[in-house]
Design a protein that fits this description.
With about 120 residues, this protein is an alpha+beta fold. It contains two helices and five strands.
Length: about 120
């Protein structure tokens, strides 16, 4: 199994987990010129942008550590485009969550980072 297939398999597992937690999955792998968001969902009144990271082992650091400031900024720009494209109001509450998979251990970090504006 190559890295892309493994990533798709892990995202599939995360989607199943999120659905079981009551998250409505709106879109997967939303891409635009600014970048990509792995999963877009709705949690109650929140529009949630999920970043999924997987690390087989800690040799390269933890999965959560891979979502640094530059990645957060890029996710926020893609989220801005998504919201504009789908006509979301400026007042729509948003949240940025990270689902970090370190081997078999899964951590869902709600509100992992704040919105980083332009």
């Amino acid at each position: 199994m190559n890295k892309r297939e493994l990533g798709a398999q892990k995202e599939e597992e995360i989607c199943a987990c999120l659905l079981s937690e009551g998250i409505e999955i709106l879109e997967r792998n939303f891409r635009c010129r600014q970048g990509e968001i792995d999963i877009v969902g709705r949690d109650g009144g929140y529009l949630v942008f999920f970043e999924v990271k997987y690390r087989r082992n800690a040799g390269m650091g933890s999965a959560a550590e891979a979502v640094g400031y530059a990645k957060q900024r890029r996710i926020c720009r893609v989220a801005d485009y998504y919201r504009m494209l789908h006509g979301c109001a400026e007042t729509t509450p948003i949240r940025f969550d990270v689902v970090a998979m370190d081997g078999p251990d899964v951590r869902w970090i709600r509100n992992a980072f704040p919105y980083i504006g332009r």
